[in-house]
């Protein structure tokens, strides 16, 4: 079977006429705009935001495409990665009928979005070394399986997923879409799947401005895929899903790759240092290898360590109830000063 987007998308969406906004119907920039019921006088804020923004954010995409090795038309921008995650589920999965495959322990939003949409979830746990159980995944695929979510580097474990294993899933799942969540790719040396999208029409890659770019508060996520899939996501999104302020800030600052490169370098150095210091603690049983800006750390008593840190206003993420993560805390890599404070409290707890 050869991948065909028309077989994956819910039939009623293929036939649906999308909302046509004023900015869809007239795309020129010059003129007297009396078509969108905006306030022509200005805004209640010092800067003017009275005009609706570009629904397709072309100015960002034109600048982003060469950075990512793709065409602007292969990019979808969303309100965080959460938006394309939700949209691709709604695009492809008939509630109560279709299913998705997720690979725990992994990012929580895949399950949340599927559940909100009443879409069934098949969970195929990673192996004990947090890699894909390819055989079990391929076996779980049935005629109603539409999506497989793979997170690499994986959250909360931090490791990269073996590329050959991902390729095996892509090649053997032509009936649906493989979503590769590369939120932490900037922190690793692993090449992205984005430049290979023409080769793999059944792949959608997720990246985000929330981590290496330091823009979590703006809520800007990216999805990359073949044009056909991007056009369908555009068809079902809210017309003006990325606000004008965010678009302006991004266009003006997207050339600042130096910030991204330098913060990645610094955070990776800090991670190495933190890893070394944590490994010298008797309460630490294991530090999992990480290609991301966090460490999954197994303690002898994670809950007690977590509570102690909270008491001292130092907040990490308790993952000890998560499958294959018993007694483990997920610690984001901080600044040198923040990491020092964390280490002081851990030494204090230990003694
Ligand atoms: C942080 C993170 C994201 C990014 O989420 P945004 O909604 O873009 O902030 C996506 N996937 C994973 C696995 C993450 O950890």
The N- and C-terminal alpha carbons lie at a distance of 62 Å
- Low-pLDDT parts are none
Strand portion, in percent? 5-15%
The name of the CATH superfamily of the largest domain reads Type I PLP-dependent aspartate aminotransferase-like (Major domain)
Mind telling me the CATH class of the largest domain?
Alpha Beta
Number of DSSP E strands = 11
- H/E element string? HHHHEHEHEHEHEEEHHHEEHEEH
Helix content: 25-40%
Instruction: List the total number of helices.
Output: 13
Oligomeric category:
single chain
Tell me, briefly, the overall form: globular
Integer-rounded radius of gyration: 22 Å
- Determine the structural class based on helices, strands and strand pairing: alpha/beta
> Which CATH architecture of the largest domain is right?
3-Layer(aba) Sandwich
Task: Characterise the protein shown here.
By secondary structure, the protein is α/β, with parallel strands linked by helices. The protein folds into two domains: 5-255, Aspartate Aminotransferase, domain 2, CATH 3.40.640; 258-350, Aspartate Aminotransferase, domain 1 (Alpha-Beta Complex). It contains 13 helices and eleven strands. The strands form two sheets. It has a seven-stranded mixed beta sheet with strand order 1-7-6-5-4-2-3, with helices on both faces. Strand 2, helix 6 and strand 3 (120-123) form a beta-alpha-beta unit. Helix 5 crosses helix 6. The chain starts with a helix and ends with a helix. The site of pyridoxal-5'-phosphate has 13 residues, from loops.
